[in-house]
Each structure stands twice: as structure tokens, then as C-alpha cells.
Amino acid sequence: MSTATSPESAASERPAGPLAGVKVLELGTLIAGPFAARFLGEFGAEVIKIEDPKGGDPLRKWRKLYPEAGGTSLWWAVQARNKKSVTVNLKAEEGKEIVRRLAKEADIVIENFRPGLLEKLGLGYDVLSKENPGLVMVRLSGYGQSGPYRDRPGFGAIAESMGGLRHITGYPDLPPPRIGISIGDSIAALHGVIGALMALHHRNMNGGSGQIVDVALYEAVFNMMESVVPEYGVYGLVRERTGASLPGIVPSNTYPCKDGSIVIGGNSDPIFKRLMTAIDREDLANDPDLAHNDGRVPRTQEIDGAIAAWLATRTIDEALDVLNAADVPVGRIFSVADMFADPQFMARQMIQQFRWQGKVDVALPSVTPKLSATPGDTRWLGPELGEHTNEVLQALGYDAEQIERLRAQQIV
Predict the structure, then answer these.
(1) Nearest Cα residue to 168 out of 84, 112, 224, 100
(2) Residue 301 class from Cβ within 10 Å (0-12 exposed, 13-18 middle, 19+ buried)?
(3) Which of 44, 168, 218, 412 could be bridged to 406 by S-S, CB 3.0 to 4.6 A?
(4) Domains along the chain?
């Protein structure tokens, strides 16, 4: 874990990110849209985040709040890092004009309102692209911009359910649980980032025309469902919940030891043989019927039973020593406390300490992926509400008197 430092001073020692020069306008709240913009900002894009003057993004008050940072969410420190916070009342005509002027200079606009809202505000792609034909607009919504469900409210949890993830998660005798993070929103956000970068590449290579990137949260989750569609289409097979195992891929499971559980992925043919040898089951290692995965699947219980029997008399550390020595993919199940103490996390500087608002040391996850020449970085942490309003409006040509009038009228 790296030591506490100022993000600004740390970033000054690093090269500009690969997206330096790209301008992003964020018109979203909470998770999917802001996470997509955060990702772009971590790699050098200038991100201007529009927030309501009355309280800003609700994420500022989600999860654990830190009193010394004005009662702001610790989540905010990472979700809004590298962004400029500008307050704008989108219901006021002068507020909309500010957004139109910012969009005129932007490469990417990211929004995650319900479909049709931007059009009602006079800020739809048809309007913004007239002034900026090269504009790329990323639109994240529960069901996409078309179809019979487009007007329904759609959150990540609903997308995880409709997209198939919840149905195959958990144990067959229990209701489907949720994953402990907003995985549907995050998956959709990454699809938005990929789409934005592809659209930018197309624009830059083909005459400068922008386009809309339409990301439905449920479709982004659905895109992760691996073989469920062809298996149903050909065999009528509906994949069901199977607990910690991965059916049809053997062995791959969570197994108990004397003092907890570990995960083993021994499903490639040579790894399976090494695993069976390591647990003193040469008979299974050399069984020709088990040499390939299709032969192992009918004998899943036998194989899992052999692994469980061997682990039952060993601690996690004892099992890890043997299986790591045998070059078998194996790992303990990490809590966040384990991550903070783990040498791999430390060596890769995956947890970094920063000084937030000059008041408090806060740990944040490092930026990934790691680029060798133009790495991403944390230039500053989540800003205070409206912290950059004056700076951004002055760059648009507003003078101090105009800005004060807009603030007095609660437009910014």
C-alpha cells in the first residue's frame, strides 16, 4: 500500500494519460453514468460533472459518510475523482444554455437519465449534435432507448435479474441472492466506455461524425451470460443455480478446509492431473476416462469428494502451500482486510493512501488497467459540490458578475 500523498503532486510526476485532450461532459447521477465518466477521467480525459445546486449527486450521501469531509460519502472520493464539479439547474433556461455550450466543446456526453428526459429538456442528441456534429453521446438506461420497456425505471438490480445473472447465482434451494456490489451498473458502465472509445475512433478515422452509444443495463449483463443462450437454443437447457460450483467445468469449486474455505480451479487437463497428483490420488490423475473435461463431468461428485477429503485435514495455509507448489490455481477468499495486508496488492500498489480535502487520509483503489507508457492516475479526489463552477464558466466566457447573478438566482 502506498503512503499518503497529495493526488496533485503524485500526478505531476506521471505522464499525461492516453485520453489527455478528450473532453467529457457527465450528465448522470449515482452509479452507471458516473462510473463510466470516472474511468475516462482516470486515464486523462477532462471530465466536467454537472450537479444539481441543491445537494448534488445523491451518491454524496450513500454508504459510509465521513464527518471531517462535511459528511460526504467515502465512495464519493473514488467515484468522482479527477472530475470537475459544476452546479447547474437543468430546469432553468440559462442552465440548459450552459450545458449546450459545454456540449459544443465536448467529445463525449455521458447521461443516464430515463429515456426521453434530455429531449424534454431540449438537450437531446439531435439538438447537441447540430452544434457539434462530432459529438459522441453515451446513453445508459435500464432498458435502452427503444422497445416497449424503455420508459420503465430500471436500476442495476433489475438489470441483473432480467439479464440472467440473478437466476444462476446462489444455491438451488434458496432464492437468488444479490452480489454485494452494484455489478449491473458497473458492467453497463464499462460497456459505455468501450462504446465511447470505439465511436471516438470511428469519428477520428471517418470524417468526424459522432454517434449515439445506447447501453441498456440488462443487455450489458446479458452480454456476460457466456453459453446460456446457445445451450437453451439447441438443447432447451435452462442453466440453474448451483452454489459455488461451475457445472460442466470440472473441477472448479469452493472447498472447505479445517479453518475456512478456498477456491480451486483445476479444470484444464494438465492442471487436473497435477491437482490429483498433489492430493495423492494418482489413480484419478492417470485415469484415461478423466483426461479431458467431458469425461470428468459425469464424475463430478467423485472428483469433488476426493478433493474435499484431502482438504478436510488441512488448514488453508497448508493446502495453499501444497497446491501452489504443484502449480494449481488456488486461492483464499479475500476480505478487504486481507487485501490491505496482502503482498501482491502491495507490490502492485493496488491500494493507495491520499489526503482528502486537506483533512483526512483516505484509502482508494488504484487505477486499472495498468498501461506501461501512459498509465491512469488519481489527480484529485471527489470534489466539493460546485468546486469548479467558477473555473468552468469563466472558461466559457462568463465574467464574475454574470456568475454571481446565476448563483443568486440558483441557476448554478
Answers:
(1) 224
(2) exposed
(3) 412
(4) 2-224+342-408 (3.40.50.10540), 252-335 (3.30.1540.10)
CA torsion sign for 294, 295, 298, 299 is negative
- pLDDT, residue 67, reads 76
Using CA of residue 346, residue 349, residue 355, residue 360, what is the dihedral sign? negative
CA distances from 33 to 65, 124, 188 (A): 22, 16, 9
Provide the CA 168 distance to its chain's centre, in angstroms. Answer: 21
SS3 212: strand
CB atoms within 10 A of CB 135: 24
- At 83-121, the pLDDT tens digits run 999 999 999 999 999 999 999 999 999 999 999 999 999
Closest CA to 7 of 362, 380, 352, 387: 380
Q: How far is CA 26 from CA 23, 68, 130, 140, in A?
A: 10, 27, 19, 12
Question: How far is residue 411's CA from residue 312's CA, in Å, rounded to a whole number?
Answer: 65
Tell me phi and psi for residue 118, to 5 degrees. -60, -35
Task: Say which of 185, 327, 361, 377 is annotated catalytic.
Answer: 185
Are 296 and 290 a contacting pair, CB within 8 Å?
A: yes
CB 143 within 8 A of CB 154: yes
Give the three cell numbers for residue 36: 463510466
Catalytic, 107? Answer: no
Quickly count: other Cβ atoms within 10 Å of residue 207's Cβ. Answer: 9
Measure the CA–CA gap between 377 and 15, rounded to whole angstroms.
9
Residue written as grid cell 484509502: 363
pLDDT digits (tens, 9 = 90+) for 260-277: 999 999 999 999 999 999
Q: DSSP for 121-141, please give it.
A: TT-SHHHHHHH-TT-EEEEEE
The DSSP symbol for 289 reads: G
Nearest to 125, CA basis, from 109, 112, 114: 109
111 closest CA partner among 203, 29, 229, 171? 29
Rounded Cα–Cα distance for residues 403 and 31 (Å): 30
Copy the grid coordinates of residue 288.
484415461
The DSSP result for 385-407, as a single string, is: TTTTHHHHHHHHT--HHHHHHHH
Q: Cis peptide before 172, with omega less than 30 degrees from 0? A: no
Q: How far is CA 388 from CA 24, 82, 279, 301, in A?
A: 15, 12, 60, 60
